[in-house]
Amino acid sequence: MEPVIAVVAIFVGLPWVILHYMTKWKTAATITNDDEVLLEELYQLAKRLDERMDTVERLVASDHEDFKPARLLADREEDNVQLQELEMLLREKKGTRR
């Protein structure tokens, strides 16, 4: 009986353990759908907060002529290059899912 258990352990148990942990290792290194949804929500929140900051800065600038915002401006083309690249990637990703 011991040789049968040894053969089963070598030819069934050992490959199963190796393949199981290889699968775990591969799936742990990828972004899940939940992670993608969370990133999309965070991105949308950041855009809304940026729009609010623009509004606050416009209000302050209208009250004080010497106010100059220290952050990136939404209406300047050179400040929006990376944001446009990110939005293009998101549109491509959504287009491939449909």
Automatic annotation (TrEMBL):
Keywords: Membrane, Transmembrane, Transmembrane helix. The keyword ATP-binding does not apply. This is Envelope stress response membrane protein PspB. The chain crosses the membrane at residues 6-23. GO terms for biological process: phage shock; regulation of DNA-templated transcription. The keyword Transmembrane applies.
